[in-house]
Amino acid sequence: MEKKNYIIQQSAPIRQSNDRPMDIRVHMQKGSDGTWHYAGDLVRIGGENAIVSNVKISNGRVHPTDEILKEETQEIRQKLEEVSFKICRLLDQIYDYDEVGIDFGVDHEQNPWIIEVNTNDAIGMPSHELFAELPDASVYMRMMERTFERFRVPLILREAFFAETLPPFECDPDEWLSENDLSSALDEVLEKYRPDES
């Protein structure tokens, strides 16, 4: 082993799924009024022989929470919501974060274990795209709408963003618009509003 600094985490008695690592990602967002919202949750399950549940590293998959937890979903989700709001209120004492992604493990007594807390900062932000992989896209769409509302993006540009590549929302939206060519996306959207000349 190389002479480097390492972080050793104590193992926790959290559940697995068919002997594969599993966790629950909770996404918290601030709305345009500055209040926190429980935006959604999903289950990440690591790939075969994986030691982590991170889907990119382990070639794993995301699943709707109720598909995995079944009849336990409501009770566990209530606990996740309670802890997630407490975490966000604590973070508000440190910095004005807008997006927080919290990874939880759950033990066999339905107790949540905090694995990691991800924030929007200089390194990046918690991924919205995980939620785009779910069969029901409504949670993802609402997350993006809430982000648009927070940055006061005009409605017509919101359609263009959904039609094309979405911008990195950790940047200033006006700065992003000045540096990126939206002509092709706007042409597609404006076509809907152009009067019929026939």
From TrEMBL:
Q: Which domain of life is it from?
A: Bacteria
A single Pfam family, by name?
ATPgrasp_YheCD
Q: What protein name is recorded for this chain? A: YheC/YheD family protein
This protein's species is Thermoactinomyces daqus
